[in-house]
Model the fold of this input.
Amino acid sequence: MTPTTVTVTSTASAGVGTLLSAILQANVNPGADVIAFDIGSGTREIRVSTALPAITDRVAIDGRTQGGFAGVPLIRINGFEAGAGTSGIVILPGGAGPAVRGVAITQFNGDALRIRANNCRVTGCYVGVLFTGTEELSNAGIGVLIDGGARGNGIGSPRAAARNVISGNDTNGVLIHGRGTNGNGVADTPSARDGAGVRISGGAGGNVLRGNLISANTEFGVVIDGSGCNAVQGNRIGTTAGGNAAHGQRRRAQRRRGHPGGTRKRQRRGLQHPRLKRRHGPED
Done:
């Protein structure tokens, strides 16, 4: 069955043609839906002044549909005015395989993206950085949080066009948390201002971190705490993108507590992210 397309045509926070309206409509449409963007051409900022509805159906938010897209996100979802504790895109159980592709998510007071559903995909997104990918507009919480027993989710991909830049967020870049939160994969460029690049905790198991660049975090690059049977393979941790120079964490690159022997041997090969300029207010 061909997905139904719901098109965003306005940068307003609410009303006809807005992202808020599109999510509400896609949630109630039967079957799969794609939220596309047709807001002129080039970069556009959607300033969210209230929490967006959670996604509860098989909905793909696809920023690649915006006119002029050439591999770098042109649609930025800005939560600077959304209020205390507000997260950006929240995906709850209800549909198989929601997706978020090719958007930038910045300046939310909560987490940028929270996943509690199964088999979601997040690709080609900038989380906590501006369209350039090198200028910080941080979210106050976690970049990407996977919890609540979510399984089979993929954050990024080895394909260059599908890789995310998750950087500059105030706590962890990616957090996979809780028992039953298993079988998720991360292949990205995660770093964090005041946390780990990637943290797996609370009994989450069977998750794979592969092919990431994890550098310039204020804490550890990777933390696996109270969780077993996770794999960390083929990453560059605390290096430049080419892997030939240090660009390290303020603490050591990797840390593991609990379940000795439950995590496969780490391979310190891998990736890095550019040093970011920081902005603390809305974009001028």
